[in-house]
Design goal:
Blueprint: E1 7-17, E2 25-36, E3 41-45, H1 52-59, E4 67-72, E5 75-76, H2 82-91, E6 92-95, H3 99-102, H4 109-119, H5 128-138, H6 144-147, H7 157-169, E7 175-179, H8 187-203, E8 207-212, H9 215-221, E9 224-229, E10 232-238, H10 239-244, H11 249-256, E11 276-277, E12 281-282
Parallel strand pairs: 3-8, 3-9, 6-7, 7-8
Antiparallel strand pairs: 1-2, 1-4, 4-5, 9-10, 11-12
Helix pairs in contact: 4-5, 4-7, 5-7, 7-8
Amino acid sequence: MSAGRSLEVRDVAKAFRARGSRGVSVQALRGVSLRVEPGEAVGLVGASGSGKTTLALLVLAAQRPSRGSIFFGETRVERLRGRALRAYRRDVQYVFQDPYAALNPLHTVAYALARPLANLRGLPDRDLPQEAAALLERVGLGPAEQFLPKLPHQLSGGQRQRVVIARALASRPKLLVADEPVSMLDVSLRAEILALLKDLQTSEGLSMLYITHDLLSARVATSRLVVLERGLVVEEGPTVHVLQHPQHPYTRRLIDAVPKLTSGGDVDGVSGGQRAAPGGRTEGGEEPGAGGAGA
């Protein structure tokens, strides 16, 4: 893997024209700046409508800012076109919120993984089965031969999200943009997926922009928080410090909406110390997804 590059969002604004209006626009983002260093996991937190997903779309170059710039290393993202944009999308991958909608119901797991391996990495057909199997094993779905021929409806929600994560890893990205990646999962499965993301971020040297309204999951998955309210950054800092010593009233309201934080900065019911061992196993637990069971 080549050396990582930082993501820098500089004074970014984004306005959308309101439906059915004449010249009236809605400001989704109003001068947002943030930075994600190589290998760092940064949480972008805020309530629904705060602008989190809009910022994700800008980082992914799916939309362009109305003002400001986004840099990935020395590359100015909003100016990318053609081959340069394709190369950027190899380096920056998206983990979808809804694992039920993210996978085509008519295509097998093998097909879902083969497409990015062929299209983004240029692998020949003969190498696709082995590489797809390796991706599944990496996210804790093994033996891979059991999962490759399955269709999405034959998988649990947690297994589907593992396939979505495996697909994001297919291009060997340097940055993952994870948009509410556990919000659609049962509570019992969330800790396993969070542990997997944390393990991948550490072992693969990935940077991660983790987008959520859920401070419990942000505590587990990130080392730094950026709090967004109505398109503005109102607070940022180390995750534990922000959760233990919030300065802005909006941050305090977000914290008041979740179970009480412990003195160690953990949240009751979600321990920040859970880690995933290689292969996706959580320490002290079973291998998630093994034999078609679990997440």
